[in-house]
Structures are given as C-alpha cells and as structure tokens.
Amino acid sequence: MKRTGLGRLVGIGLALSAGSAAAQGVPGTAPAAPISGGQGTSTPSQAGQGTASPITGAPATLPGQPTVGEGAQSATPQAQDQAAQDATRSTEQQAPGTAEGAAKSGPLTLEELVARARRSDARVEEAEAELHRLQALQRQAHWAWFPKFETVVGFGGPVPEARNDGLGGPPTTEATLEGDWNFGTLGVTVRAEVNALLPIYTFGKLTALEKAGDQGPIIGAALRERARAEAGFQAAQAFYGYQLANAGIVQLEETAKRLEDAGKRIQELLDEESQQVSKIDTYKLNFFRQVLESRRAEAQQGRILALEAIRLLSGAKPGEPVQVVSVDLPLEEDEFSPPTLEKALALAEQRRPELTAIQAGIAAREQEVLIRERAYYPDLGIVGFAKFAYTSNATPQRTPFAYDPYNDRSAGIGIAARGTFDIPMKNAQLDQSRAELDKLKAQQRLLQSAIRLEVTQTHGALTAALAKARAMTDAEKNARRWATAAYAAFDLGTGDTRELVDAFTALAQASADKGKSWHDARVGIAALNRVTGMAPAGQ
To answer: Mapping DSSP to helix (H, G, I), strand (E, B) and coil, where does residue 380 land?
Structure first.
C-alpha cells in the first residue's frame, strides 16, 4: 500500500528533535549527530511494499531493509505479553479521541500518544479502507453462486395489424397481408425476458473461490496492524525526542548558571589584581557563553519540531496547544532487562503481521491454482427462463405449433452444462497462477530471513544502547563530582581556570552523552516492540 507524506514529516521532526543531544554538547566541541527517526524501521515508502492482497493479484514484497542502530523493545513471558496487549487495547479505547479531549485530560502521556497515533494516523485510516475493500471482496466471493437473472424489458410501436384465426391459419383481414402499404389498425407491443443459471456443481471452483476470498480480510487486518505498529513506534520516537530536548535545555541552563558564577568570580579576582586569573580567562568564558547560547537555540528548535511531530501523530488541530508530560529518560537497574535473542526471534515469528499477511496470500494463491486446474471442467447448473410478449393489434395463437412473435407466455427450467474449449488459454493461465504461487513462497522465505536479520540488529543495538547508557550514567556522576571539586578549588584560589573549564567541558559532554544514550535505549525498547510484533507500551 502507498504511504502518505506523514511518515516523512514525522521522520524529519524526530531527527531534528533528537538533535537536542547536540544542544547539550560541550562548548567548543562539535555537536553529536542526531538520530534519524527512521533508523531500523521501514520508511513510509518502504512500509508501503508489504504483502498485498492476493484477491487483487498484487504480489507480496518485503518491508524496508533494516539498518544497524535500531533499538529494541522488551519481550516478556507469554502471559505478560498478552496482558500488555490487553492493557494497550484498553488504553486505546479509553484515550480521548480528539485533540480537544487531550487538552481537557491534561498533558499527553506516552500511552495516550501511542494510542492516538495507532487510531487516527492517516496510514492507519488508509489500511482500514483497504481492509473494508477486502471484506467486500470476501462477500462477493461468497455470493458468486447467486444467479444473475439477466432481464430484458421493452416497449415499442407502432406495430402493423396481424390477425388470423388463432390456430396458425391464414390472415383474416386485408391489412394483415404483407407487400402493400395497408398497415391496418396500428398497435403497440410489450416484451419481457428473464434468463438465469444456478450452479449446482462446479468441480470445487466455487468452494475454492470462497476460501481465497476469506484470506482477504486476514491480509487487510495484518496490514492495518503493521500501519498501527509503525505509527505507534513513531509516536514513541517523538515522545522521547521531546524528553531529550527538555533534558538538554535543563542541562544547558545548569551549565549557564555555573558559567555565570565562574564569570563573577573571575571578575572579582581581576578587580583584586589576583595573579590567579587574567583578561584572557574573561575572553575564554565569554566564548563558551556564546557557544552555550547557540546550543540552547538548537535544543529549543528540536523541542518545537518534536511537539509538531506529536501534534501530527496525535491528530491535534493546527495551532492548538499540545502538552506532553515530562518523564526521566534513565531507567532503574531492575526496571527493564532485554529478552534473549532467541526469545525475540520466536516472538517475531509468531506475531509479525507481515508473516501473517504473506501466509494468507499463499493460501489464496493456492486456491487460485485450484480454480485454474478445475477450469477445464464445465459448470453444471439449473437454467430457467421466462418470456412474455403482448401486442395490442395481433391475434394470440392458441396452438403450440404456430410461431407467434407478437404474443408469448412461456417459461422453462432444466439442467445444463456450461464451459469453454479455449484449452491453450487455460494452459497459459494455469502456468501463470503456479508461477505467482512459487514467487510468493520465495518472497515468504526472503521475508522470514529479513525479519530475523532486523530482529537481530535491533536486539544488538538495544543491548549496546543499554550498556552505553549505564556506563554514561556513571561517567556523568564522576564528571559532576569533578566539576564541583574544580569549582570549589577555583573559588578558594587553589585551582586555575583551565582545570575549571576542563571540568565543565567533561560534565557537559557526559550529560549530553547520558541523555542521548538513554534516549536511544528508550527508542530501542519501542523498536523491539515493533519488530517482534508486540503491543506498544509506555516505558
């Protein structure tokens, strides 16, 4: 299915909002590269390449190729998985359905944002429409046996006079004779004819058609679930991008306050003509202040874009204020532990909607092959017809041996066989259906391999992100202690400005890396939810 431009807009917003890590960067150092909202996920154009409906004859293709760096989401035991899905469905039902409801209910939580995106995203609406189309095709397949009742009704005139004795004898009026311009009393004629065929035995063709039609809604529901999963994942990306931008702004404000205090102390020492500082220290401090301001502008812009992505995904109206609840990005040590790779792979094989869709497509193709194989046999059915004709100036014939096109009342019913003898055409159609089935089976194997690769990359990226986040948490604690000690030494006159600047630089870098790494871990947890087919949940 084609995707709208929504995914591209959201991806841009997420990429720029994640740039708040750069805004947290060390003064005088290059900013960290922002994380694209599309890493490890299908882009809108790639997502549109999923399994198509076999009813329409469109082949199934693979989702976007996964890239290294995608996060992953936890996989809990089977009972907890089901509980998470039930809780998510409950949240989707209870969450306000409009942006006005969001304003009344307070700031949006992650659960509410994900539920809104899964319900109101334009890609989900497109998938819903496709599901309804496939359901209509299913009904059409189940009613294929119903007779068409081909009916013709006509009314015409003028009709020349036609009179005889009603037993097929010669004309009884001069005007009835042909070959002259004497038409006699002119009249009108009314005709109606109905023909129908009710199939009673088709050598399994009708049954196969019904089975093929039943696969359509399965495919549509799976593609809808894939669109919901993509929308929910992008909602999590936008939410955590906003949290990262907020954390960056808070850290920048803290660093700015420390620089302000250091500037005042340097000025006091300069006024006292202390040998501890010089005018160069003032220039250096002013330089770092300006760099800090540029980082603050980047963080604020990232927050604005993250909010715009949230507005887009939540279905809020343009210009309507959207509030988002603030959460801490770091996780507690025992709050989350990633599943094993084997568990993640098993979940993906059981729950990925793309696998469900392509399996249903194969089942439909198999029924199509069966229909082509049985097309060589005729259809047996009950045929019926009814005819009625009335002409106002013609004598009705009372004998069955007389041909009467003017007045007719006849009906009949019988058993008939219907078929065609275009054997070369049937052979070609059968070969084509078999080739399409083989093609779809090959795509299924390729899809299974691609999903395993995607899950492996996502799981590895999450494991690395969690390890980095926990390491950077410890690094930030040590950098904070270093900065506190360096400032105290500088304030007492036992430390120089270089040590102070180095400590502030290390603290800013460690804080930026900590926030960025926990952002990656949070997004990674949501990503593993998506690639394993798990229901999204707020972490």
So the answer is: strand
